[in-house]
Amino acid sequence: MRQELIELFKEKDKLSLKEIEQCLHVQNTEQIKEMMTALQELEDERKIYNDHMQYVWIDNDQYMIGRVKDVSRFELAIINPEGKIYVPKANAKDAFDRDEVLVKKTPQGNYVVHIFSRGIRNVTGTFFRDKEGWRFRSDIDLHTTFKVKNIKEFSLSNNVKAVVEIVKYTRPLEVRIARIIGPANEAGTDITALLYENEIRQEFPEPVIEEVRKVSDHVTEKELEGRSDFRALPTVTIDGDDSKDFDDAITVEKTKDGYRLYVHIADVSHYVKENSPLDQEAYLRGTSVYVVDRCVPMLPFELSNGICSLNPDVDRLTLSCVMDIDKTGKVKKYDIVPSVIHSDRRCTYNKVNQLMDHDPQIEKEYADVKEMLLDFEELAKRLEKQTEKRGAINFSTKEPKITLNKKGKPVDVTVKERGYAEQMIEEAMVLANVCVANYLNQHKFPGVYRVHEKPDPEKVETLYQIARVFNVPFEVSINDVNALEIEQFLSSIDDETAHEVLSLVALRAMQKARYDADCIGHFGLALDEYCHFTSPIRRYSDLVVHRMLRRYCFEKNSDKRQLAKDQNKVRVQAAHISEKEKDAVNAERTVNDYKMAQYMEKKVGQSFIGTIISVMNFGFFVELDNTIEGLVPMHTLMDDYYNYDEATMSLIGENSGKVFQIGQKIKVLCIDVDAAKGQVTFGIEQNATRKAKEMPFEKKMPGRDRPASKKRKTDH
User: Fold this and answer.
1) How far is residue 452's CA from residue 523's CA, in Å, rounded to a whole number?
2) I need a labelling partner for 504 at 20 to 30 A (CA). Which of 108, 385, 625, 712 fits?
3) What residues contact residue 172 under an 8 Å CB cut-off, 6+ apart?
4) What's the rounded Cα separation, in Å, for the pair 559 and 569?
């Protein structure tokens, strides 16, 4: 049916529902259902749209799909990865900033014909009073005024920060007050507002609070029944200095054949009962959200930092994955059991890294667990060799560390440092996740898997083109690439700049990892079976996996009706959790962009050295060494007319031959900042350009290759 519809639309680009039924000879209810499902799929894929009278085929030559950027009182910019076009607001229907829209391009001008989805539902801003009464000013200038429907229901004060919810997309924008946050100049108020704007749930309903009050703050004797008692084992947690919720702990024993690794995970499902108010709220949140000044938890702090957290010197209920590993780092057998542990020490990444560097003070402080941690290091190196052997892709990624003062203002932006202790924990957690996924998949039990599909061949082709620019051999099967090929390609690059750029392009070529009820493998980790089991305090996916283990592994449930019910349920849950993960990532990125732009407000007029990380037909993005990004717009390049060369991701001056190309180091000037939008604008200094006829990238001095210790951000 789907293919028949596509062929039909290619013959005639506009068809009513009745015409489609006639052309396809649809006669019964089953065929109508199949037809409507296929039409909906084509709409979801943005191949057709429904104008309420007929279905219209989206011809890429006539149409453009993109996100709206409100650039002025008179005009909208529509942007997608292929470029940018402009639409006068008179031709824009009721499209607003961040909406996903369909634009028809005509000689008489561009106009919006369809709005696929709204980008803004909530708007943050401040209230102020003038001679006309109370007015609302949005933080981001949407080039409109606001009509507040329920203003009389609130007691307002000048410069109070609020969140309003859009009721009607008109001009003026019709809104209602959703929440009064507090004085705009108080520390943290700005981030609270951004989180509400991004629809992050920040308060727990009263039924949830009431349920948490009833949870015991200690482990009782009755709760130990049926559990493996691992309290006598030397056990530690290893986390960041600021961490307060510890959902994983480890024990390492040396054996005659290799090692026994225990990965103990907080038994959150024991406390969060399915379909309870607490569970329903956790599901709605889907994940904890981590921003620069706080964690917005999936579970109340009384649980996430209390009875569910594997704090030292107290008994805690856990699920343990016990793995026997040979001397080469291969798992020979594993067992998954409900358990109880008693953590001996709360270790930090920093101190474990210092211990491995033989710091005498840390060796003394960690004397009771020193030998086990060094055994763990030894084991991790063997696990790392197996990871490299199977071809897990090692991207060079950088994460920002934003430091705020007491007033909530950013005073520094640096790159987060990662040592080997972080990788040790990652290797252990990935291994436990693999074992749990293997158990669920081999027994055909319901579960939520972490999946990552192969990259689109077109994006692999782009990686090939950029590799050619750098003169780097690219022996990869473009149409049937595997992770090992990508990893070997990246590992073969000696030049540091080329490696950073090609890692970035390779990362962008990847699909987004997501959750699925089907075990279809994880491309980036080069694994056939993978799930998330190790972070149930902060990820609902892991909580689902724990419940399935309890029901089918520990309790041996054999009810076929329950099995079918769970199989359907996890499919819905996987889709929902994937969406909540996207929401969390977007919120975290929005806050980071805002704070980094705020940091750059005092840097306007200053020069920086950065790297071109993306080139478009409207300009190029430059990333500074501390991860702050800014756009150099095309209209600021006043010295020449520049043509965009998509194949080499470069802009080339028509007269001068100057080139701006991905990977190029360049000196830029900070010329403008819009903190509310999280945007930094750079300009260039003339001595930063170079001739196209020159070598595109200078080689580093001999011996200045990438450091041996790689940075890995693993999807664990």
Assistant:
1) 5
2) 385
3) 144, 145, 146, 147
4) 15
* Per-residue confidence (pLDDT) for residue 60, from 0 to 100: 81
For residue 256, what pLDDT is reported? Answer: 94
What's this model's pTM, rounded to 2 decimal places? 0.87
Task: Give the residues across from 56 on adjacent strands.
Answer: 14, 49
| CA dihedral for 141, 404, 672, 619, sign (positive or negative) | negative
Strand order in the sheet with 133-138: 133-138, 122-130, 160-168, 173-183, 146-148
What's phi and psi for 17, nearest 5 deg?
-60, -40
b/e sequence 333-362, b meaning 16+ C-beta within 10 Å? ebebbbbbbbbbbbbbbebbbbbbeeeeeb
List, in order, residues 6 or more apart from 234 with CB less than 8 Å away. Answer: 251, 344, 368, 369, 372
pLDDT digits (tens, 9 = 90+) for 340-388: 999 999 999 999 999 999 999 999 999 999 999 999 999 999 999 999 9
Q: Are 193 and 163 in contact (CB under 8 A)?
A: yes
pLDDT value of position 714: 53
The per-residue pLDDT for 64 is 93
Residue 287 DSSP code: B
Q: What tokens were used for 215?
A: 């949870």
Tally of CB atoms within 10 A around 202: 13
The residue to which tokens 């996987």 are assigned: 574
Residues (pLDDT < 70) of the chain are 396, 686-716
Q: What is the CA radius of gyration of the chain?
A: 28
Tokens of 86: 């402009």
CA–CA dist 173, 180 (Å, integer):
19
The pLDDT tens digits of the residues spanning 117-156 come to 999 999 999 999 998 899 999 998 888 999 999 999 999 9
| ω into 81 cis (within 30 of 0) | no
